[in-house]
Amino acid sequence: MQKEKDVAIVGSGLVGSLLAIFLRKQGHKVTVFDRRPDVRKVQFSGRSINLAMSNRGWKALREAGVEEEIRGLALPLDKRAMHVEGQPVYFQKYGEEGEAIYSISRGVLNRKMIDLAENAGAKFKFEEKIWDVDMKEARLYTGESEKSVWKEYKFDLIFGADGAFSRVRHKMQRQSRFNYSQHFIDVGYKELTILANEDGSHRLDNSSFHIWPRGNFMLIAMPNLDGTFTCTLFMPFEGEVSFESIKTEQDADAFFENYFPDIKDEISNLKKDFFKNPTSAMVTIKCFPWSYYDKITLVGDSAHAIVPFYGQGMNAGFEDISVLNDKMNKYGDDWEQIFEEYQTERKPNADAIAELSYRNFVEMSSKTADPMFLLRKKIEKKFAQEHPELWTPLYSRVTFSDKAYADALKIGDYQRGIMDQVMEIPHIEEKWDSEEVEKEIIKLIKK
Amino acid sequence: MQKEKDVAIVGSGLVGSLLAIFLRKQGHKVTVFDRRPDVRKVQFSGRSINLAMSNRGWKALREAGVEEEIRGLALPLDKRAMHVEGQPVYFQKYGEEGEAIYSISRGVLNRKMIDLAENAGAKFKFEEKIWDVDMKEARLYTGESEKSVWKEYKFDLIFGADGAFSRVRHKMQRQSRFNYSQHFIDVGYKELTILANEDGSHRLDNSSFHIWPRGNFMLIAMPNLDGTFTCTLFMPFEGEVSFESIKTEQDADAFFENYFPDIKDEISNLKKDFFKNPTSAMVTIKCFPWSYYDKITLVGDSAHAIVPFYGQGMNAGFEDISVLNDKMNKYGDDWEQIFEEYQTERKPNADAIAELSYRNFVEMSSKTADPMFLLRKKIEKKFAQEHPELWTPLYSRVTFSDKAYADALKIGDYQRGIMDQVMEIPHIEEKWDSEEVEKEIIKLIKK
């Protein structure tokens, strides 16, 4: 246990709440600020992709001692259900027997995490917005507005868990030599819902992650405990088929009927959501340094917001906290060392999962219909099943392990190089499952 | 001439002042805001690299009708003077006969540009800081401090010419889908001075750009009209030989004596500056979009700050204004179209000169001592001299032409590919000036 510190966490989201639990266990006084109202007392806003908890997330929850409490809120998905145009649905297992990602509603999880942090003794201050941070003195300034009279708080440590548009990072960004980038993709997303059957059951298979890939746009659906599915439509903001191009009810009817005939019963509901819910943008944010001496550090999206196409945003944020906790155990009260080693270890991993997530966006939107790409995946999968000691697929390394993201990226690139060569084998379409190909892959690995 | 608009320019630097002249010529009412005092009434701050005006800069000044007024303030430099350790100084001509870059003091130029803009009828408001911008309504808010009572101004158009840390861009950055990056290099700079001889003459050749390349650091010197040289020491912030490592007068003595023996008479003066002047950071800033409908656009460093190693920062900013003026002439009062076409045309060029400037930093700091690199430059130069119709060196294309930076980058990459192959010719060191090599280059170009 460390010497007690008076700690502020800015942001009561998933990562902030988890950090609060860990810091309470380490014996600190914890105050969590959030500019928004208590999420437990408001309706959800209809703009959050359902979350996919995987190994890294569960590991951090386990270390915090709250894994079991969360398990009950999540539905395991062990496969993708691919709804390719003009073909029957087909299923792709994510990993080996027993491996699954877990669908969980952001709102449901966030409420629970705040409960757990409060039970652990953290104090929450909702609807109190941070306007300024005195980095040297670890002071926070809150108030009604930027120009109102501000209230001043003095802490020993401040954690910025305030998301992609972090106010704490905004202050750090004013320093010379602070590197920063925000890059938006030209695709937006909109949340839609597929209702439950009248008896409360799910309309689609509820242990699958459903995907309707449609070239440069796609729909996904993840099941909730109440029988509904949270769907997300990813589509370019502008262009021929785009959010901009769907202006009227007729446009929406035609769009859903044309591209998603297998859920056409749901069209009136989907259409309603389409015009009710906002279209949101997606951004990759990178920055460095994350820490300011022994006073301030950033965690989760405020340090490394990523696009959601690998389902790793929350998992990466939770892993930050797990790593921070390891450093606390290792360095005791030397907070400068804790923050320094935390950021040095996490930065390359955050960059790697940002890159992998962006690549998955490109892959999901443009390649899922390419037969040669699907063949490549099939060859890789078969080989991995037969030679698990030689080949762990990239997806498994990211999703079902807690090995460094940076290593996953590096090994993934190496594997891609091998597969590029395999795909060059003449008539690979015909002999992809032959012993010749298998031997060739082994030869390439051992080279 | 356009319909008169009430225009605000934020920033009275070089680009802001030039824009004021152009806008006055187009018949607009122009108010220039600057948070700093009038540069004509204060001492310079000792932290500006001397500027190198080249073709693009002169072209814009010519179009503004002020070229001749500025020519008198500048000294032509037609060559580099290389002060390589342990070798006599040697000279490298920049271009062909009559081609030169022009050394000019930022302060001297800025004072003159403000005079010229004022004479043209622009109104300047110094020491008035912008705190907020209402983008939709083109309003500016100024005041003593962020929390003081603000003064509101309403304009038709606002131009952000407020430099790398632009307040106008800062406001635009809050929009969704605004891409932005700031990347600092690990090298800092410090301004030093070499004094004039007692008779007012220059101590070093005054038609040369002087460089002392020293591996991962370097000193440069550019002459001023008064017989002095403005020197800039570029050096890593941290590390073995670094700004951080020079702490005492003894450290500084040893540093200058060790690395710059040919200017050792100047050491006490250089040392004095070393501890007096600040160490500054260098940043590449990219963003997009630059414009907000028909209301706001960014020009110069606020849109595209670059590292100074190609001597193109001011030239690129002046070229922005030249292009803007072309669009005003083309589209009359359609400001949305003017801003749209301006940003679409300039963005790839700004990215290209950012890339070229960064590459020059890498090249100047690490390659100027590599004999194979120097040989490559020699081969290229000889070929360009003998076949000017087949080969314009990249440096000339950037510095002595007004062709697009993006094309210079592209053609430069193509030429580099050819030179890579030339350098692979066996025994190239011995036969670099042979007809065989010349013919090989021609063959590679025609391929």
Describe the 3D structure:
2 copies of one chain form a homodimer. The relative contact order of chain A is 0.13. Chain A has 447 residues and is α/β, with parallel strands linked by helices. Chain A has 15 helices and 19 strands. In chain A, the strands form 4 sheets. The first copy, chain A, has a 7-stranded mixed β-sheet. Chain A has a 6-stranded mixed β-sheet with strand order 8-2-1-12-19-18. The model of chain A has no long low-confidence stretch (mean pLDDT 94). Among the domains of chain A are: 193 residues, FAD/NAD(P)-binding domain (3-Layer(bba) Sandwich), CATH 3.50.50.60; 77 residues, no CATH class. Strand 13 of chain A pairs antiparallel with strand 13 of chain B.
